[in-house]
């Protein structure tokens, strides 16, 4: 086993002794909080170059701190060199004060420089408009940028105009008290009219430009609610508990309902074969209206960093999105969802639903010197699917039991006697239809 190099840090640079409240924290996050004039990228680079000693040894950025550990630096971070040049750009500013600005990012604009997008970014436009009145927490290439939107996803964003405001907004993102609401047009009808999708998201092993639901991905949770139904599509409302790359698009595709117009996650021509013949022409016309995925950040809510007042901003749908909805309202508006394959959007085949990236690897048993190794038979796809359905059934039953207990508690608070509804069913296996749609 290779020993770690031991260094003697210079007394001229900062030293920290880890207290009980910081136990378990990652080293890079700890140092970023202490060195407030530097970005996390600057701090991580300093650690990678071997300028940070923790417990007498050169540390790694993902080191978890322990009580009493001495963390010492033999250099200070070098700020990231900026190649970002201000660019004149028309900004749609919804709100602005000395600490924050809320803007509407249009479709087709990249938020900050990256691979293949070095100019024409929103960050360059912000730098031109606000000049030096932007936070520097995320480095010079991302002035004021607290969170992001995909290039072809328009919508509201909050921009930090100083580092104190930035740290407050970032903390709200981390604690999930900064809420972002989206609307999207998806193919088909979801089986549940509201619910949550809680599946890990990571890089697709087969394509570096795509994300996917993968077993070792990052935790991701999306809340959804159906707003309006059409023969071949549904207008949905989404709210993010986490902010993974392409999260809504990936979760929608995984559930079998890609976002209309999405060129990466099978929301365009790849979905046409699942459209019933009666509405095939309507679907093709809809795709002509959609320039890309019909997804928009329509609302943002946060606590103001200085006044501590809750602020909520919302915007109407952009023109292509609004045009698509009006087109469907005219051509194939419905009061309730349908699940007849002959007259509605066809579900994914079982092979498409059973995502291979979530399958568990078979466990190999160790060889024994005293007995013959037993033959391990791999389950068939049908058996794995049956086991998966059984797990889902049990989970849904538990959720139904929780809802019943909650309803009992609410009835007791109102002084009423709780009576279980005879029609209660486990969601996910029967369509949950609002009675108002059947009137």
UniProtKB/TrEMBL annotation:
RNA-binding S4 domain ranges (all copies): 25-82
Active site: 150
Ranges where the record places region Disordered: 356-378
Keywords, alphabetical: Isomerase, RNA-binding
Keyword Isomerase set for record: yes
Acidic residues compositional bias, start-end: 359-372
GO annotation (BP), single: enzyme-directed rRNA pseudouridine synthesis
Domain of life: Bacteria
Gene Ontology molecular functions: RNA binding; rRNA pseudouridine synthase activity
Keyword Isomerase: yes
Family: Belongs to the pseudouridine synthase RluA family.
Record-linked NCBIfam families: rluA_subfam
Protein name as catalogued: RluA family pseudouridine synthase
